[in-house]
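Subgroup meeting minutes
Present: P.N., E.W., G.H.
Scribe: E.W.

1. P.N. recapped why we're keeping a running log of single-chain structure predictions: easier to compare across weeks, and new members can see raw inputs and outputs side by side.
2. G.H. added today's entry (108 aa).
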Amino acid sequence: MQIPQLPKKKWSREARTQLLKLTKGEIIGLLDNDENWERADNSQGTIPFRNPNMPSPHNYLTIHYHPKETFRHWSLLEKFLQQICWTEDSLLDSKVIKIKGRKRKKPR
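Output recorded in log:
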């Protein structure tokens, strides 16, 4: 079975810099607040999340949690954000990132 490719999103340099500073604990908190993702049973050191609205195998992700640890490489974080289906605009709306001179336009 071939895994379908999720669409690749472009991220500005400012957004990448701010996202790399987020700790895994902060990302877990954002996932807890996201209505699409729900926390599954967790074992020690890993925190699994499930999205019942997405097709398998993209409906499940696991964060290997260590306090205050960040993602070291953008490529790993980018794939992670791609699977969660967060965009730069959605993170601007939720005030996770801030980009000078750019505000998200509210849909009419």
